[in-house]
Design brief:
Structural class: mainly beta
Low-confidence stretches: 78-113
Helix content: under 10%
Number of helices: 2
Oligomer: single chain
Distance between the termini: 73 Å
Number of strands: 28
Radius of gyration: 23 Å
Order of helices and strands: EHEEEEEEHEEEEEEEEEEEEEEEEEEEEE
Strand content: over 45%
Number of domains: 2
């Protein structure tokens, strides 16, 4: 009826859009793509309409010379639907991706927005799946490969001219990676990309976090040849009630877990610092993790990450840290774009936590593949830390744990470390 050819040569955008409009006019439905390659520019989704791609069906981004992509939409809040200072994506960048973006636009989509993305393979040159200012979203059974950007990224930007949280989102049974562009789809899994900081390809909350995130669940996902899980509030919004469970990671280029509360506050007016609280991360295994950063949890002075629990996790690092690395002092980088690589090599191989209030570490194993001369754990400016059954690998005569300005600290049932409780300590190592 809508004559989309799917031959990889004919531009099918108009036919796809007509099918979406017809489905919406009928009260909702599904637009079906048989096997084939559907060349397209911007596709205009509508409420209550889904896209179903058969096995062997691909939506391929057309080159800008073929047709123009949509520019960011103008709106009544004074310009592009962008945070001031942000550079909109160019048509050339849009053409380089086969990505899916979902943004809540008040005059088009109802509230709450319910979306279900299921069983897709996506291999873009930018973000694979972006969810911005949305509610009630489920992403399941997707394979997303993105060497230069995030694979699945939750955002809460200022696109609506007001703070609106991204909330009640489930990401489950997905695989994310940073292999060469296209090599997930053809099964070659090439690793020739030499990107600064290594391939990206991860699951991330932020960095656009003006509206915040609530009730987020990530479970049963695999990270391969990528950066690790990132939870970031740097633009003023709150992050609350995040649950991460049953994650497997392999060949991780930097911090397998990165939790960052910063004060970039890239938003309108007098935007205040945000918050991160009530985060639970459990049953995570990461093998072959890069040398420079282990788990990295960091607020900034005066703004602490609160109530974070890490349990039943096992990390195996590449190792090779030198004795002098233990004296490194990572910069605060309060207003910088948040990325683990910006902190450089950390003074610990396993866990570095700074500016945290309420930290629980239970049933954790930290190992290395090559001799490590750094301690396993360091806590800086931490108020309330409970470490239970923390198992670390260390060389003889080297310390395992370093404390700096720590209050209400307890460690117990941890092999090789005597049980102890400390009310307040300026500096200690054991």
């Amino acid at each position: 009826m809508f004559v989309a050819k799917g031959d990889g040569k004919t531009l099918d955008t108009a036919a796809i859009d007509r099918a979406i409009v017809a489905a919406a006019a009928a009260g909702g439905g599904t637009v079906h793509f048989p096997a084939g390659t559907y060349l397209s520019v911007s596709i205009h989704l509508m409420s209550q309409v889904g896209l179903h791609l058969d096995r062997g069906a691909t939506i391929e981004a057309a080159a800008p010379a073929v047709a123009a992509y949509d520019e960011p939409e103008p709106n009544e809040w004074g310009g592009r639907a962008q945070i001031p200072g942000l550079r909109p994506q160019s048509p050339a960048a849009a053409a380089a991706t086969i990505a899916l973006s979902i943004a809540a636009v008040s005059r088009v989509l109802p509230s709450p927005l319910a979306t279900n993305i299921r069983t897709s393979s996506i291999s873009p040159a930018a973000d694979g799946i972006d969810i911005d200012a949305c509610r009630n979203v489920r992403i399941a059974h997707c394979a997303v490969n993105s060497p230069f950007d995030d694979a699945i990224c939750l955002k809460s930007s200022f696109a609506l001219g007001r703070a609106r949280a991204t909330e009640t989102v489930t990401i489950t049974s997905c695989r994310v990676s940073g292999y060469d562009e296209g090599s997930l789809l053809d099964g070659t899994f090439k690793r020739t990309v030499a990107d600064k900081g290594g391939p990206t390809g991860r699951i991330k909350l932020g960095t656009e976090s003006f509206g915040g995130f609530r009730n987020i669940e990530v479970s049963n996902c695999v990270f391969e040849h990528s950066r690790g899980l990132a939870i970031m509030s740097v633009d003023g919004g709150p992050i609350e009630d995040v649950r991460v469970t049953d994650i497997t990671m392999r060949d991780i280029v930097n911090a397998p877990i990165f939790v960052r509360l910063g004060t970039r506050v890239r938003g309108p007016g007098d935007t205040l610092a945000g918050s991160i609280r009530h985060v639970r991360i459990s049953r995570v295994t990461a093998d072959d993790v890069g040398t420079d950063q282990g788990v990295l949890i960091s607020g900034v002075p005066g703004h602490a990450v609160e109530d974070l629990r890490l349990s039943e996790v096992r990390f195996a690092f590449r190792g090779g840290g030198a004795p002098e690395d233990a004296a490194l002092e990572p910069p605060e980088l309060e207003s910088d774009p948040p990325e683990p690589a910006r902190f450089g090599r950390l003074p610990t191989y396993g866990l570095f936590a700074r500016h945290v209030k309420g930290l629980e570490i239970h049933h954790v194993e930290l190992r290395w593949l090559k001799d490590e001369k750094r301690p396993a754990v360091r806590l800086d400016d931490v108020d309330g830390a409970d470490l239970h059954d923390v198992r670390t690998q260390r060389l003889p005569d080297l310390v395992t744990l370093v404390l700096r300005k720590v209050r209400d600290f307890r460690i117990h049932d941890s092999p090789g470390i005597p049980d102890r409780r400390v009310a307040n300590v300026e500096s200690a190592a054991f």
